[in-house]
Specification:
Blueprint lengths: L2 E5 L10 E4 L10 H4 L3 E2 L7 H7 L6 H13 L2 H13 L2 E5 L8 H10 L1
Parallel strand pairs: 1-4, 2-3, 2-4
Helix pairs in contact: 2-3, 3-5
């Protein structure tokens, strides 16, 4: 299983494999051509309420992860779509957040690998 993470503002690379945007909103200032997104799975992103309550506050990271995992448990159909893509080859989860250590892509990768 090869899952990579990359900001939407970083240049695509051949080793990325299938590029899946996992944010609910399209990244600001990035054209569809520049982003080279193969699949936009916005429904797998955290709910708006969860995203807003987290607010990228590092002190809320653990609570965010737990809540997001609960949301993912409630959407097995979307998780299965992603698992199938990952089984077929390398996948890069593309995200827009500035914090590369604490964001929905990091949490989703952890969830998929557990």
């Amino acid at each position: 299983m090869q899952i990579f993470l990359k900001r939407a503002y970083a240049d695509p690379a051949p080793k990325d494999g299938l590029r899946v945007l996992i944010d609910r909103l399209w990244p600001r200032g990035v054209s569809k051509k520049e982003a080279a997104i193969d699949l936009w799975l916005k429904e797998i992103a955290p709910s708006n309420a969860l995203r807003k309550s987290f607010g990228h506050d590092p002190s809320r990271w653990e609570d965010f992860r737990k809540s997001y995992f609960t949301e993912l448990d409630e959407r097995p159909d979307l998780v299965e779509i992603l698992r199938e893509k990952i089984a077929a080859g390398p996948v890069t989860l593309v995200f827009a957040a500035r914090d590369e250590q604490r964001n929905n892509a990091v949490a989703l990768k952890e969830y998929l690998e557990s």
